[in-house]
Amino acid sequence: MAQKISQATSAYGIDISDRFSGQVENPKHRAKYDPKHVNGITRFPGCPPRGFLPEKSL
Q: Model-level pTM greater than 0.70?
């Protein structure tokens, strides 16, 4: 389910910088969320941890 939460709001909610959040979302950067970040994201309504995992293995 898509959420209408700004990048800055989500970064604040999971206690990371806007810059790091931008790097994670940019495919040219190697930065990735770790399990602690994903757990923080799940505090937002409608964002279950399972939503971050592929249905089939890559």
A: no
Which residues are CB-neighbours of 18 under 8 A, at least 6 positions away?
Answer: 7, 8, 11
Residue 39: what pLDDT?
A: 83
For residue 26 the two structure tokens come to 């940019």
Question: Which residue stretches of 3-53 are H helix?
Answer: 7-13, 18-25, 35-41
